Amino acid sequence: MKIQIIPSILSADFGHLQDEVDRVSSADSIQVDVMDGHFVPNISMGPAIQKSIRTKLPIETHLMVSNPEKFIDAFADAGSRRIIVHGEALEDPLPVFEMIHRRGCEAGLAINPDTPLTRITPYLDAVDMVLCMTVFPGFGGQSFIPSVLPKITELRKMFKKDIEVDGGINFETARRCVDAGANLLIVGSFLYRNEELTPQQVIAKFRERFP
Ligand code: DX5
């Protein structure tokens, strides 16, 4: 499967957000991290900010929120091509996946590092991709949690669609995740806070490593 490089704008300079999005024009898509201060201990951005972004790249929206069903329409209206919800935030995620598909978006299911695969295996046929968080969600710049790797390997055995990783992804941890079976790489601080390389150079080097 094609390895896709997807910058998370959570680590971008929000004072120059459009410029920061323009700086990753060679990526496969961009990720908008939405946090409500309830499901995760941080608040980030809403549909109005996403709607303000001008880009040719597909936008995927990672809803780290309680009651994500309340926000599907707003983010679909704000241009989401993919909407990812957390299994931990929903008793029954199936109606939410149906809502997302009715809006013409891809449906993604995210799980935290300590959530077992058994929590999501009943829903794998209903989603277009799974996000295995490699940090506990809420902040960029955290350290990669290697104990998630066996979960990715197990998931890849039963799930042939896209598997995404998010949190602490750099050249070294990306290699470990791709070897385990992931093919979508969310990169935040390693791309936007890199002291040696520009975002475009980071993307180019990822492409060299994962042709
Ligand atoms: C949840 C967020 C972050 C962000 C990536 O905390 O989803 O994981 O996108 O952050 P980095 O790449 O800086 O770990």
Protein model, in words:
- The chain is built from 8 helices and 8 strands; from the N terminus they run βαβαβαβαββαβαβαα.
- The protein has 211 residues and is an alpha/beta fold.
- The chain has helices at residues 17-22, 47-52, 72-77, 94-102, 149-158, 171-180, 189-192, 199-209; strands spanning 4-7, 30-35, 59-64, 80-86, 106-111, 129-133, 162-166, 184-187.
- The model has no long low-confidence stretch (mean pLDDT 98).
- The protein binds D-xylitol-5-phosphate.
Percent in strands = 15-25%
Residues in helices, as a percent range: 25-40%
What is the helix tally? Answer: 8
User: What number of structural domains do the residues give?
Assistant: 1
- Distance between the first and last residues' Cα: 10 Å
Rounded average pLDDT: 98
Write down the CATH topology.
Answer: TIM Barrel
Order of helices and strands: EHEHEHEHEEHEHEHH
Largest sheet: 8 strands, parallel
CATH superfamily: Aldolase class I
Spatial sequence of strands, sheet with the most strands: 1-8-7-6-5-4-3-2
CATH architecture label name = Alpha-Beta Barrel
Number of strands: 8
Uncertain ranges: none
Q: What best-fitting shape do the alpha-carbon axes yield?
A: globular
**Distinct ligands, ions and cofactors found in the model:** D-xylitol-5-phosphate
Roughly how many Å is the radius of gyration? 16 Å
Assigned CATH class: Alpha Beta
Structural class: alpha/beta
